[in-house]
Design brief:
The protein is mainly beta. It has helices at residues 2-17, 20-23; strands spanning 34-39, 47-53, 60-66, 70-80, 83-93, 101-108, 114-120, 128-134. It contains two helices and eight strands. It has one domain (26-134): Porin (Beta Barrel), CATH 2.40.160.
């Protein structure tokens, strides 16, 4: 009976020492593929944002309408935990307040929405946030 108790004890110790990440697989970048839409919080007038993620490191697009009218590309930089980081580069703008570089952080929430956070690079502009939902494409 004693050897069996020793084996069970060793298994319990092994299971308890596994990292938490082993319990839940990380969200792959491809799971974010597709169109997402939402409205930036705190913007007056409202600024709508649409993001089309390619699911790869390049080819993702971003566009703003409403208070700002501009569009650009997102280039995948990497991830930390469940947060994906992209470099935002505005390529076309019809608004004076839109341009430059920013860092976009995206996190898939348990409710299926995408948490969006933007931070300017090299400019003193407050961060912007939004909750994005998967866009329904009309056929």
């Amino acid at each position: 009976m004693r050897p069996r108790l020793l084996v069970v004890s060793a298994l319990v110790v092994m299971l308890l020492s596994l990292p938490a990440a082993a319990a839940a697989a990380p969200t792959p970048l491809g799971a974010l593929r597709g169109p997402w839409v939402g409205t930036l919080t705190g913007a007056d007038p409202a600024i709508d944002v649409s993001v089309r993620l390619s699911g790869g490191k390049r080819g993702s697009r971003i566009a703003f309408t409403g208070g700002l009218v501009c569009s650009g590309v997102l280039i995948y930089l990497g991830r930390g935990g469940g947060t994906f980081r992209f470099s935002e580069q505005i390529r076309a703008s019809q608004s004076a307040g839109c341009g430059g570089l920013g860092i976009v952080r995206l996190r898939l929430r348990p409710d299926g929405r995408l948490s969006y956070r933007w931070q300017a690079v090299g400019a003193d502009i407050p961060p912007a946030r939004a909750l994005l939902e998967r866009a329904v494409l009309e056929s």
